Amino acid sequence: MTVPKRFLGVGTRGDRDQGGPRSRPGGLSPPGAPCISSPDQSLQLDKNHLHCPKRGKNLFLGVLVARVTRAVTGAIAATPSTTVPAMAPATALATVAATPSTTVPATVPATPSTTVPATASATVPTTAAPLSLSSTPGSMCNTCPEKWVNFQRKCYYFGKDPKKWIQARFACSKLQGRLVSIHSEEEQDFLAKRANRKGTWIGLRDLDREGEFIWMDKDPLNYSNWRPGEPNNGGQGEDCVMMQGSGQWNDAFCGSHLDGWVCERLATC
């Protein structure tokens, strides 16, 4: 900043060399010019040259510094303000909202996959298999209770005390089974080898309608081993079927006592 010349016109080079301004002719100071130990900061008493021996130089510098400081302060105050005006809250929010945001995507380190080696070849089912009361071909269900005989996924009990057909039916129910139903030649041969030679009750009858024979398991009569001429309902009322010692079937009176009867139930796995 350039200091105005009026602030630099105090004294001459010769004055500064001698520690103060030169005296007027006759060695007198200007009228009313006091000699003070420090400059007047209001600059009211320093308008004239001061005559203070030895202290003139210091006093001159003090006055000069005060005037320069006052000039610099005024110049700064006159300089236009560059302060950014404060925005209203709504304007500030709009400005922030309009500013596109730059999102730095976070780098997620890849997690190495851990492969757990299989320790067993068996596959664990996710859901429990429903319980079934019927066996399927090829299944390994062959467990039977004590005194029962297994054959083709079924268990057979051979009763040996004399009973009527209805008594034999109830006896099988108490053993959690039913009078046997025969559906194949293989099953017939298996039973014939073990049945009582004096006669055995089986689960076939036509009690509901004459000539319409029904098995205890409700399956149709798709296999039969009748003795020739049977069933004949001889004597009227032969509604229950027995297996003779030869293995052949005969319709007989349901109230007859036979020494044998056969129960069946499904084998367990």
Automatic annotation (TrEMBL):
Organism of derivation: Ursus americanus (American black bear)
UniProtKB keywords: Disulfide bond, Lectin
InterPro entries: C-type_lectin-like, C-type_lectin-like/link_sf, C-type_lectin/snaclec_domain, C-type_lectin_CS, CD209-like_CTLD, CTDL_fold
Domain C-type lectin: 151-254
Region entry Disordered, spans: 1-33
UniProt xrefs under CDD domains: CLECT_DC-SIGN_like
Protein known as: C-type lectin domain-containing protein
This protein's record includes keyword Acyltransferase: no
Pfam families from the UniProt entry: Lectin_C
PROSITE patterns, per the entry: C_TYPE_LECTIN_1, C_TYPE_LECTIN_2
